[in-house]
Every structure is written in structure tokens, then in C-alpha cells.
TrEMBL record:
Catalyzes the NADPH-dependent reduction of N-acetyl-5-glutamyl phosphate to yield N-acetyl-L-glutamate 5-semialdehyde. This is N-acetyl-gamma-glutamyl-phosphate reductase. One of its GO terms (molecular function) is N-acetyl-gamma-glutamyl-phosphate reductase activity. It is found in: Cytoplasm. Belongs to the NAGSA dehydrogenase family. Type 2 subfamily. GO terms for cellular component: cytoplasm. Pathway: Amino-acid biosynthesis; L-arginine biosynthesis; N(2)-acetyl-L-ornithine from L-glutamate: step 3/4. The gene is argC. Residues 5-107 form the Semialdehyde dehydrogenase NAD-binding domain. It comes from Mannheimia bovis. Its EC number is 1.2.1.38.
């Protein structure tokens, strides 16, 4: 049986390692590797890109840009960095958006969504696209993530037995309101402006909970939270990875835990509220649908494999 050749450039990072774990057991995948001494050798990496059926870039932005600038135009590349997410020459790797799955299937260049952006876009894009939320409405977004989202350095800091006491409590970051995910959060929701965005990191390894509050008065053509939940259910009805809960579907304790989907690759959407206010929530794993799970999903689509092959649902 012939195998797809996959090269992961940056395979020692958090996302790259998890991609390796997911693909290592696949019978139709051959993972191409480089010896340690060639890991930063551009010519050696480009040779693997040319050999591969598809390459994953798990690199800092500038390193991704350098490799892409030197790679053949027909090389199929999925980039997990922020370098190309709003580049019109790249396809955004969120398959569940209208028409996006077919674009990914045909693409040579796919930019994988950021973790925070994944939840925000999942909640806002359907409302704007369907004419329910005006594109000029001023939105805010709150996002709680596990510390693995900060990569190896943050993981080491949180798992250090001598860490500061401050790490025991949730910590708000991105205080200048210029988070790197904001450009894609604006562009892919079709909004005129980015949201006021407050990300929070807390003392759990992985998982993410993204929330967007709205007054009912901001919405058009819908009169209840139930109608909003139905809109989401219709929009994502063909998705194997996104589950939409009915309006006011509360957990037994009445709380949403951000780490409930740790280790999973799917995403769930909730709608809560009352006659005057609505809360939209997306829950998933920052390392799953928010990172390596989305990478593998895009790869599956690009190679014609089952879209959820190798994913944990």
C-alpha cells in the first residue's frame, strides 16, 4: 500500500509533537524526519518539503515565512503560525465555515486557525453571515485557556515545583489589547472591527472556553436564544466535529468547565441567557480543535482521507 509522505517542520514543539503522536500509528502515513543536526538547515528542510505530499509548519512566524518564500509553489503546506492567517493567497483552515471545506481541499497553502480565534469565529461568523449580527457591532470576547497554549516555556513554568504563587490563580494577559489572534478574529467573522478581547490562562494543562456576551437588542431577525441555538445547529449540521447544544442546556452543576474537552478534537457550542441578554460559548481543547487536531483535519481534507481520521472525538 502506498503511503502519504508527511513532513513536520518544527516537530519538537508542543503542536508538532502532538501531530507526530496522532499520525505515528496511521497505516497510510509515512512521517519524514531530519537528523537533529539538520533541524535548522534550510536546504535540508526544503528537500523534505519537496519530497513530502504535505508539510506542516510548526514554527515561529519568521521561520515559517522564510521557508514558504523558498518552497516550490506546488508544495502543499499547512502553517500553524500566525504568519499567513489573513494572507489572501492562503486558505484559512476552518473547514466548517461556508464553502471553506472545498477551498481547503483544493489548496496548496492552508493557514491553521489560532486557538482563541477558533472559538470566537465559530460563535460570531454564522451570525454575521446570516445577517443576524450587524458587522459594525462592538463585540467583546473572554477566553479561558490551559497553560499548554503558551508552549514549552509556559508549560515548564507552570509545572515547576518552585513556581510563583501567582500561578495558582487565573491570570489575564494581552493587556495592551493587541493579541496576535485579533486580525483573523476580525477578518474571518466579516466584522468591521476586532473584539475587545481578554484572554486568561489558568492552572490546568489543556482546554479552552471562549465566550461572547450579547444584548438581544443587537440581533436582527431573531427574538430568542432558542432561535440562535437553532441557527447554529443548522449552520453546523454537516460538521462531524462541532456539536450545538439546545438553548439553556446546562451542566448538572450549572457551570461550564474549560478543561472538559482536554485530549479531544471536537468543539461544542452553547447558548444561554434571558429575554434581554445572551451568552454564546464555545468549548474545546486548545491543543485539539485549537491546534494539532485542526491541522490533522485540514490534512485529511487535502489528501482526500476521511475528515476525522486520526482524531479523538
Amino acid at each position: 500500500m502506498s503511503k502519504y509522505k508527511i513532513f513536520v517542520d518544527g516537530a519538537v514543539g508542543t503542536t508538532g509533537l502532538r501531530i507526530h503522536e496522532r499520525l505515528n500509528q496511521a497505516e497510510d502515513i509515512e512521517l519524514l524526519t531530519l537528523p537533529e543536526e539538520q533541524r535548522k538547515d534550510l536546504s535540508a528542510r526544503l528537500a523534505k518539503v519537496e519530497e513530502a505530499d504535505l508539510t506542516f509548519l510548526c514554527l515561529p512566524d519568521e521561520a515559517s515565512k522564510e521557508l514558504v518564500a523558498n518552497a516550490p509553489q506546488d508544495a502543499r503546506i499547512c502553517d500553524t503560525s500566525t504568519a499567513h492567517r489573513v494572507n489572501p493567497d492562503w486558505v484559512y483552515g476552518f473547514a466548517e465555515l461556508s464553502g471553506q471545506r472545498e477551498k481547503i481541499k483544493q489548496a496548496n497553502r492552508v493557514a491553521v486557525p489560532g486557538c482563541h480565534a477558533t472559538g470566537y469565529i465559530a460563535l460570531v461568523r454564522p451570525l454575521v453571515e446570516k445577517g443576524v449580527l450587524p458587522a459594525d457591532y462592538p463585540l467583546s470576547c473572554h477566553s479561558l485557556t490551559g497553560y499548554s497554549g503558551g508552549g514549552k516555556s509556559m508549560i515548564a513554568d507552570y509545572q515547576n515545583s518552585e513556581r510563583p504563587q501567582a500561578f495558582d490563580a487565573p491570570r489575564v494577559y494581552g493587556l495592551a489589547l493587541k493579541h496576535k489572534h485579533l486580525p483573523e478574529m476580525q477578518a474571518l467573522t466579516l466584522m468591521q472591527n476586532p473584539p475587545i478581547f481578554t484572554p486568561v490562562v489558568a492552572d490546568f494543562y489543556s482546554g479552552m472556553l471562549v465566550t461572547v456576551p450579547l444584548p438581544m437588542s443587537a440581533l436582527q431577525a431573531v427574538k430568542s436564544g432558542g432561535e440562535i441555538a437553532n441557527l447554529f445547529a443548522d449552520y453546523y449540521q454537516h460538521s462531524k466535529l462541532i456539536t450545538v447544544h439546545s438553548f439553556q442546556d446546562l451542566p448538572e452543576d450549572g457551570m461550564l468547565s474549560a478543561n472538559a474537552f482536554s485530549g479531544k478534537d471536537n468543539l461544542e457550542i452553547f447558548v444561554y441567557g434571558n429575554e434581554s441578554q445572551i451568552l454564546l460559548a464555545a468549548r474545546f481543547d486548545n491543543l485539539g480543535k485549537g491546534a494539532s487536531g485542526a491541522v490533522v483535519q485540514c490534512m485529511n481534507i487535502m489528501l482526500g482521507r476521511d475528515e476525522v481520521s486520526g482524531l479523538e472525538i
